[in-house]
Design a protein that fits this description.
This protein is mainly α. It has one domain. The chain has helices at about 5-35, 35-65, 70-90, 90-120, 125-145, 150-180. Keywords: Membrane, Transmembrane, Transmembrane helix. Pfam families: DUF308. It comes from Vasconcelosia minhoensis LEGE 07310.
């Protein structure tokens, strides 16, 4: 099979993956929108456990590599990760308050990067969806900041849900462009 025959198949495979990813993001987004407080707590607990597990792995690595130098610093960083994770897991509502501010910052930066990416892919069909996704994420970031800390318990779940739906839609729309061209 030559390169010209292989490219449409590879494009179709990547496009199918983008569409599947988009559908999954939309489903998760709808769940988060329907139950925003639950979604906020799930996000907090998930991140908390990631910190705990990551901290334990870092601690094991620091202990095993203690002869390579900076072992004390590595152990302190691992203990900090475990402490942050434990705080998030043991105090999910307080964790949600902190995470809400962090997620607001994330949405703002993610949106700015998506806007930049949209202009980089501008000649591509449907690039405007990436631009719209970026603009909406910037707006979501600003909304989170403006409501923090008063609406922290539910706003993070709702806004993450909205972002997931918008990003999933953008993935589907961008994923269908190459598929149509491959036929």
């Amino acid at each position: 099979m030559n390169t010209q025959e292989r490219e449409p198949r590879e494009i179709a495979t990547r496009s199918t993956g983008a569409v599947i990813l988009g559908v999954l993001l939309i489903i998760l987004g709808i769940i988060a929108i329907a139950e925003p407080v639950f979604a906020s707590v799930v996000i907090d607990l998930f991140l908390g456990w990631l910190f705990v597990i990551g901290g334990i792995i870092q601690f094991i690595y620091a202990f095993k590599s203690r002869h390579t130098g900076a072992a004390v610093l590595k152990i302190l960083v691992s203990l900090l990760a475990i402490a942050v994770g434990a705080f998030l897991v043991l105090n999910p509502l307080r964790g949600v308050l902190s995470l809400t501010l962090i997620v607001g910052i994330y949405f703002f930066i993610d949106g700015a990067l998506r806007v930049i990416t949209a202009f980089q892919i501008k000649p591509r069909a449907r690039w405007g969806w990436m631009l719209l996704s970026g603009i909406l994420n910037i707006i979501l970031g600003i909304l989170i900041w403006s409501q923090w800390p008063f609406e922290a318990a539910w706003i993070i779940g709702l806004l993450v849900g909205i972002s997931l739906v918008v990003n999933g839609t953008a993935a589907i729309l961008l994923g269908t462009v190459p598929q149509a061209a491959a036929r």
